[in-house]
Amino acid sequence: MSSVDEDHAQDTPVRHRWSESARFVPRVVVQPVQRFMDTSASGALVMLAAALAALLWVNLGSAQAYESFWGSEVRLAVGSFEPLHLNLREWVNDGAMAFFFFLVAMEIKREMVSGELRDPKAAALPVIAAVCGMVVPALIYLGFNAGGPGGSGWGIPMATDIAFAVAVVTAAGDRVPAGLRVFLLSLAVVDDLGAIIVIAVFYTAGLSLTWLLLALATIGFGYALQRIHVRALPPYFALAALCWYALHASGVHPTLAGVAFGLLTPAWSFLGPSAFRTYAGGLVREVDEVYRDEVLSHREYDVTRGAVRDMRRLTVDAEAPLDRLEQGISAWVTFLVVPVFALANAGLVLPDHALTAWVDSPVALGVVLGLVVGKTVGVFGATWVATRLGIATLPRGTTWPQVLGVAACAGVGFTVALFVSDLSFDSPALDEAAKLGIFLGSAIAGVLGFLLLRLAPRGARPDPAAEDPGTPAP
């Protein structure tokens, strides 16, 4: 805290929190950590450190201990009823990551209401790019493996790992315009939805239609509650939990529940600025009328306490639920959920000849080229064609070299690709080759995307005064 802040604190009755004080522990320990967490690249650095720790754990430590730990079973049971039986890695990938997708979906919802995706042409661009970014990698893979023993793995290079891809873009810092980051988020969500559909149709034998319909019903009920302006959050939490369980039981990846309820979260406040100003001003005047000195009478205390309580309700209603929820879970997702996800999934055993072995395997070669070349060409090419035809528009302030960098980042396919690999092959040798290709392809795509974004020229910054916020939608 600066001396100016300290002087200001002495001149006002507002007391700073302990973490913001000039005491030794907050100043030396807490505040530097807070400053690090506030930097744009901090989450990416923590996640990449967790991924590196997983690699070191497996390759320099004990791969068996790593798999044993993350394969530990955690059961949720009530008496003889056991609704969930998952290992630690599944709890992270299916459970905790639902909060990550919830956060991403809320960010996309905000952009749909008052940001980059408000324009239908801008919203169409990530969908078009995602579709081509799935088709081209699959075709490249089939070019090396069609008719062979690895032909069933065509779905492996299709998906973008949204957590790792966003971490790479975030590490590039302010070199990436906000609109381009939203483009990647939207593209990755559509990409993952497409991958989940591919898994459900081509790689899942026991899809339960009953549970899937129940999940859709919970989403519909949540939408109905929103339309009748139900403000209490517990009903939505209960519906989201039921939707998650129904999707899990249906055989569809349950993180879709996070996407669905993130998009359902209202991006508008229940109390507009004008109404807030009117009501809050009335409460302040009410306190002024009874407040005479520092010692309050019983009546003055009751009036002040009631006004403070009403003011708290007003501030809650004046803030959009989306903003409140995003602020509440953002740090937890960034610095806990995502790093644990990286630690649980990045532990791949690298052979001694990892840098050359993939060239001799059609499966590994198809995966690497599908992720690095296919994703980049598919996303960038579709974006270029769509904008040239006038059916979509680039995010404001974006240059084509920046689009190329983000297209390369879309080639970071990790978790979903590993999942598809496990479903694709019965042969351990083919599965290991695919996983080697996933790791190398994702690493190359991530480094390539980062370098392209850091070297890309900046576009013209959009003029905030020229923006029309439009009318918020629910």
Describe the secondary-structure layout.
Layout: H1 3-11, H2 24-38, H3 42-61, H4 63-70, E1 73-78, E2 81-87, H5 88-114, H6 120-145, H7 162-171, H8 178-203, H9 209-227, H10 234-250, H11 256-264, H12 273-290, H13 298-317, H14 321-345, H15 354-357, H16 362-389, H17 400-409, H18 415-424, H19 428-455
Antiparallel strand pairs: 1-2
Catalytic activity: Na(+)(in) + 2 H(+)(out) = Na(+)(out) + 2 H(+)(in)
Function: Na(+)/H(+) antiporter that extrudes sodium in exchange for external protons.
Main location: membrane
Largest sheet: 2 strands, antiparallel
Shape-level CATH architecture of the largest domain: Up-down Bundle
Strand arrangement, largest sheet?
1-2
Taking the alpha carbons of the first and last residues, their distance comes to 40 Å
Query: What is the number of beta strands?
Result: 2
Fraction of helical residues: 55-70%
> Looking at the structure, what is the overall shape?
globular
N-to-C order of helices and strands? HHHHEEHHHHHHHHHHHHHHH
Number of domains: 2
CATH topological fold name of the largest domain: Na+/H+ antiporter like fold
Number of helices: 19
> C-alpha Rg, in Å?
25 Å
Mean pLDDT: 82
What structural class is derived from the secondary structure elements?
Answer: mainly alpha
Characterize the structure shown.
- The protein is mainly alpha-helical and 474 residues long.
- The chain starts with a helix and ends in a 19-residue tail after the last helix.
- The protein has a two-stranded antiparallel ribbon.
- The chain has helices at 3-11, 24-38, 42-61, 63-70, 88-114, 120-145, 162-171, 178-203, 209-227, 234-250, 256-264, 273-290, 298-317, 321-345, 354-357, 362-389, 400-409, 415-424, 428-455; strands spanning 73-78, 81-87.
- Helix 9 packs parallel to helix 11 and helix 16 (362-389) packs antiparallel against helix 17 (400-409).
- Mean pLDDT is 82; it is low at 1-10 and 463-474.
- The chain folds into two domains: 42-207 and 251-268 and 320-459, Up-down Bundle (Na+/H+ antiporter like fold), CATH 1.20.1530; 273-317, no CATH class.
- Strand 1 and strand 2 (81-87) form a beta hairpin.
- The chain is globular.
